Amino acid sequence: MGLFRTDPVDLSDERLMELVARGQERAFAVLYDRWQRKLLSYFRRMLWQDSERAQDFLQELFTKLAQRPESYQPGRPFGTWLYSVANNMCKNEYRRMATRTAALPHLKAAHNGVAEPEGGTRVDRDHFTARLEEELNKLDPDQKAAFVMRYQEDMAIKEIAAVFGISEGTVKSRLFYTVRKLAAALPEFNPQPEHTTPATGRRP
User: Fold this and answer.
1) Interval 35-94: pLDDT, tens
2) 25's torsion region: left (phi>0), alpha (psi -120 to 50) or beta?
3) Phi, psi at residue 89, to the nearest 5°?
4) What topology does CATH give the domain 109-204?
5) In this structure, are residues 40 and 54 in contact, taking their beta carbons and an 8 Å threshold?
């Protein structure tokens, strides 16, 4: 008789974590396949578009998960818990980077969620993305993470609230003030969130 009565691919993340805690390697492989692309994208955006570093962080995250599956909190949605762990890893990296005197690599950031320069401007897209990256890196880590999750990873307000353990209203307020800061810092681009108001998000 097999280890699974149901194909593990059809199981929920939370059920798979129960099996991972029992040492089921197949369950772990399914979780990795299910989440590795999303987490790699998140790490890349949060870590200055450094693909190699993002890959290292992805491997570190899943290594920790394999070694200490009991760190997952049963009853909490697995996805939001996983993003909270990833976010804490990024914040720790920011602290390490802050202690170094060497300048950060000049790397571009994706610009989803903020309008590109209007057609009449002569400022090209490369300059826009470089300036946006510069200003994002000046933000409080939680502000940057919320912005990346919402406008670049397209996460719902409810999901972001669960990651941070705060109310949806607080998330909306954080996003509103973050975009306003970017608008003030980048007046030449007049950035605005796409299809978003302070009171509502693109997805409920």
Assistant:
1) 999 999 999 999 988 999 999 999 999 988 888 898 998 888 999 999 999 999 999 888
2) alpha
3) -65, -40
4) Arc Repressor Mutant, subunit A (1.10.10)
5) yes
